[in-house]
Specification:
It is a single chain. With 174 residues, this protein is of the alpha/beta class. Helix content is 20%, strand content 25%. Helix 2 links the parallel strand 11 and strand 12. The relative contact order is 0.11.
Length: 174
């Protein structure tokens, strides 16, 4: 009787160990970013966020769709240290630029933003030393940046920000 009970407990234990290892592999695989072309992305709650740009183009357009899915956001540190990029155009349909999404781009000079943009996170364009122009029109929510200088800090070359239609009264975190 003891021998059979021990075998059953051992079999159940081995099954549980196998099941747990299979589940942990599934979780880590789901956490891996998906990539298409020069961009990697993640899907959360049906929304696509571009998480990384790994191309070498000097003029980059953040796509409105990736793998036939609508892109809604540019993620935190997406273009971090993308030194080859001189100009970025964010496609119509994208609604959010997360915090520091374009920070540290040493050669970035120009950014064009879409009308669809609803929120810009903290320090989205910090440490872009050659940034000269940010343009677009929209009713944008500037995260919790109470002053534009925090969004663009450490950008000595910045000479033009078209903020004509920016919504500076609705300051909630992006």
């Amino acid at each position: 009787f003891m021998k059979n009970a021990f075998r059953k407990i051992l079999a159940i234990t081995l099954c549980l160990i196998t099941l747990c290892s299979l589940l942990s592999v599934g979780v880590s695989a789901a956490d891996e970013p998906l990539c298409s072309g020069d961009f990697c992305y993640k899907i959360e709650n049906g929304n696509v966020t571009v998480t990384d740009y790994h191309g070498t183009d000097t003029e980059v357009t953040v796509p409105a769709t990736i793998d036939n899915m609508l892109v809604t956001a540019v993620g935190i540190y997406c273009f971090d240290d993308s030194d080859d990029v001189v100009s970025v155009t964010v496609s119509e349909g994208i609604e959010t630029l997360e915090a520091k999404s374009f920070s540290g781009m040493a050669n970035l000079q120009e950014v064009n933003l879409p009308d669809s943009l609803l929120a810009i996170g903290d320090e989205a364009f910090t440490n872009c030393g050659k940034l000269q122009s940010v343009a677009g029109s929209g009713n944008w929510n500037l995260g919790n940046c109470t002053e534009l200088k925090w969004m663009f800090q450490n950008n000595a070359s910045l000479t033009y920000v078209d903020a004509t239609d920016w919504n500076l009264s609705s300051l909630t975190r992006a």
